[in-house]
Amino acid sequence: MVITVYGPGCARCHETERVVRNVLAELQSDADLQKVTDYQAMAAAGVLATPAVAIDGEIKLSGRIPKREEVKAWLT
Amino acid sequence: MVSVNRRPTPWRLAAGLAAAAVWVLAYRSLAGVARWVTYRLAGLEPGSRAASALEFFVYEAPKVLMLLVAVVFGVGIVRSFFTPDRTRRVLAGRRESAGNVLAALLGTVTPFCSCSAVPLFIGFVTTGVPLGVTFSFLISAPMVNEVAVVLLFGLLGWKVAALYMSTGLVIAIASGWTIGRLGLERFVEPWVFEVRAAAVDEADAPASWADRVRAGREAVVDIVGKVWPWVLGGIAVGAGIHGYVPEQFLAGIMGKGAWWSVPLAVAIGIPMYSNAAGIVPVVQALLGKGAALGTVLAFMMAVIALSLPEIVILRKVLRPTLIAVFVGVVGSGILIVGYLFNAIL
Prior knowledge:
The complex is a heterodimer of chains A (76) and B (345). Chain A has helices spanning 11-26, 39-45, 68-75, and strands spanning 2-6, 32-36, 52-55, 58-62. Chain A has 3 helices and 4 strands; from the N terminus they run βαβαββα. Chain A has one domain (2-75): Glutaredoxin, CATH 3.40.30. The model of chain B is unreliable at 1-5 (pLDDT under 50). The longest helix of chain B is centred in the middle third of the chain and has 36 residues, at 209-244. Chain B has one domain. Classes of the chains: A alpha+beta (76), B mainly alpha (345).
């Protein structure tokens, strides 16, 4: 499973990455965490608002920081 | 997310109504509390400068914060009906004119943060939203926002708030339309059009009322949590001006008579960056000291709508020529609004 965090490096994007990383650690998941900071790649994926999170290429959330429970629900 | 589409339960509705009632009672008692704090608790002399400044702060600060909480909550619920993706689908393939109007209106209710300006810009222009229509959205979204409108309403009354909102929309529509007419697509960085933007249907926005209320609460935590120091700082500066700067002090430099004050206000405002929360209390205090409404509104619009950080962000996708046209067109619109209000009010 690949989990992708899209964000150009704003505070909310770092926070999003932190939330996702914590949940991955807590679930001892072996999902692959990728960070995308390139605008071209973001647009190509269809991201309109950052931060955004995608699981296996499917955008799950954009424009806000996810809650831990949300991330858990996507991963399980 | 588990979203069951259901109406609010009676219990939740009752809790909401009770919260609203407490809010109204507290709001109505603010003026009395402010007088009590100033004259009884602090024991200040009625009519003194310190009393005037303190009473202003103790009344205005909680009032504006309470208004913010209520309106941001409401707008948070309204925004749960709109996403940038839905807005894009509405605007894609629109003709200009009608498209500009629609984009400016949607800009006021679509959740937007200037840090997302670039991906949003690319997503819009590569999926068939005309350049000028995209600009109408990008101008209206930061300028006509609930924080600005609440502060203007709370500190200057509904007329000024309505004036700001309607002229802000007109500037967004007219500027976007003008940029569209000028045919400036070649000044967008070429790689933007090479992006094969995927038009993805996002996972659906929260659908149940419980989800929407939660979105409203999150908006309050997020937005009010971020702007409250600005509100307090702005009101503290405003209170200082209110109590200590003599009446009519600014009439000579920022009054109607000084024709050069509007362009100067815009020129100073463009590179400045503050959000509405910090600038409106200062604006209110300036008005009280003889500054003209048009000049002050132009200053405020220039500070909020055009800012150096946003220009730096947009430079990633726009050539300098287009940046200059964007700043020039929006700046001219603000200038016209400033002169117009100085002339008719």
